[in-house]
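Chapter review: from sequence to fold.
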Amino acid sequence: MQEKPDFQPRVPAATNGRMLRLFTALHVPEHIAETLARRQSGLPGAKWRPLDQLHITLAFYGEANERQADDLASELVKAEGRGAFELELSGVGAFGDNHRSQTLWAGVKASEPLTQLAARCKTAGERAGLPPERRDYRPHVTLAYLKPHVDPDRVGAWMTGHNMLHSPPIRFETFGLYSSILTDSGSVYTLEREYYL
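The token string follows.
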């Protein structure tokens, strides 16, 4: 008796057959993440991000199917090869609406190489049919998501207490294409592909 042929579909490496929420980012090195972790306390109602999930987003693309993810992974190759660069973290702040903070972050000092890389990642998304968010690019490292009941005065006090944050220069030699999966305990990020600067 003849065996049936195996008709499993080809699965692009960027998706492994899943529908994904995708973004590009610079991963915060462990020694800097450990420094940031020392600031992740003292605010009831803050859901602090795990150290291995700390990053600087370059572009957020949202939901992507296999074809789009594979096209994006290919387009991002064009963003490579401009050279490594250094960044510095500086200060803290919050994003929110209706006078309610929802996210605490560490700021990133202005950097032309970072701005150019983010623009190249945005262009890659557009070429792959995944136009990124339209809001202005504000580089940061998300430290915590805040529950709705968090006392705004406590948020202000936390920011005042940590606003002198300043890191030494951090060298980046790669950036990554990441997937984001929402779970009950928050988003989980997975590196799908890595690219050299």
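Two observations follow directly from the output. Residues 1-12 have pLDDT under 50 and may be disordered. Residues 20-196 form a domain with the Cyclic Phosphodiesterase; Chain: A, fold (CATH 3.90.1140.10).
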